[in-house]
Amino acid sequence: MTRVRASKAWVINGALVVLLAGAGFGIYQAFSPEPNTAQAQTRSTPVRRATVTETVSAAGTLASSYTGVANFATAGKFTSIDVKVGDVVSAGQKLATIDSTQAAKQLQVAKANLAVAQDALDAAETAETTPATGQNSAQNSVTSAQAKLDQAQLDVQTAQQALDNTTLYAPGAGTVTAINGTVGQQSSTGSANSGGQSSGNGQGSSNNSAAATTTSGSSGFITITNLTGLVVDTSVAEIDVSKVKAGQKATVTLNALPDKPIQATVSSVNLTPTTSGNVVSYGAQLALASPPDGLRPGQSASVVITVAEAENALSVPAAAVQSVGSTNVVTVQENGRNVTRQVQVGLRGESTVQITSGLTEGENVVLTATTQSGTSGGTGRTGGTGGFTGGFPGGGQRGTGAGGGFGGRG
Questions:
Q1: Are residues 82 and 122 in the same domain?
Q2: Which residues pair with 300 in a beta bridge?
Q3: Fewer CB within 10 A of the end CB, N or C, for the chain?
């Protein structure tokens, strides 16, 4: 009986040892990282003739080709405003008026003084021809009267100008986008009309009697913006500016209309740079070919400018060309073997590269991509550069990879 019990105990103990050993091995397998295997996935593609396009990308903003700011050149109380926000106006169109009572009186007085000065000159000239009058005295009277007449004429011109300045005219064509004042309000000290900022067609001419000046970003009584002649303002990096020239074609994609690219043309590139921190760039402007309705100045856009194009050129995918300094090589399939060959490249497009020498049409070049992968088992653990993914038993086990991440639940 004792011997039987001892045998049973040995069997039970042995089974426990086996179970513990198995559990330990399972835990070791679960928590020990498996080596990642770099698998080189290769495929080949023939050298083809195609159009290779080199482009320059940048961010841009929609802007008006013309913005004019209209201000009264003299102070006064607004007596009429003949337009409202949203109205489309033409150059020289009447916009508003201020009280002209005082200016009209000043002109009336100036004209009366002119008449008096004219009569005085006529009398002096008559006296000059009278024999009883001294020659020198008569000449002095004429000279004095002529000077007074000249001054009176200048006073009339000044008074007329002041009266004309009580009416405000549009400095250019466009849409009224802002009115900063109401009828009955007193205007501030007058300033000349601003011909505005011309980005495209340069419509900054003023038909008002006030002088016209060109300003950028100024505010005034009435702002007029050309909403139909929109352009795109962009900045080109200094490394690319030598490639960008007026007349080149471009594609503009608005953030508000990502599915409707707009064709455009580079209209100008600034000669002087703009520096922000250590970044040097050059401003450029693009004219839109057929802009859709509803665009507004200030909208953001992405710009892609075509700076060079090679038609019917030998080309390979960009992934086939390996570059080290000025040396470019590709891997070519020859008689079932992969052979490295040096080539000369031309244009570098976004996805293709022009080959100017070293390859012939129809040859197969190799594209190689290396991926990291592990093994997956019943526990659901998978390796990877970003950590194991999977779950815990019954759905996988937790793992930590080079990325230090945790897996999810399987």
A1: yes
A2: 61
A3: N
